[in-house]
Write a sequence for this structure.
């Protein structure tokens, strides 16, 4: 005997994926704007700015930084911007 599934209980892997993409994009945008602001104000050494412009270092920094920020957001607010935008909840 099969039972009907509640539409709210179905896992949507693509929605979870796109929520993660949105979150990482917002983190990368914030990191990029921060670096550019520091460069414009002269607070960032040109050698450090060149090193931060390396895509490998920048992407790795964004991913590692997002781990901490995601933990803090989930712990305090219970959601991340991408999950909230797509209507996902952590149970």
């Amino acid at each position: 005997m099969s039972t009907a599934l509640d539409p709210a209980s179905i896992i949507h892997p693509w929605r979870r994926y796109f929520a993660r993409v949105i979150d990482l994009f917002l983190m990368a945008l914030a990191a990029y704007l921060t670096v550019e602001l520091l460069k414009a104000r002269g607070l960032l050494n040109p050698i450090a700015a060149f090193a931060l412009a390396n895509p490998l270092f920048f992407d790795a920094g964004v991913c590692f930084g997002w781990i901490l920020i995601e933990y803090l957001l989930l712990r305090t607010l219970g959601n991340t911007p991408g999950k909230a935008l797509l209507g996902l909840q952590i149970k």
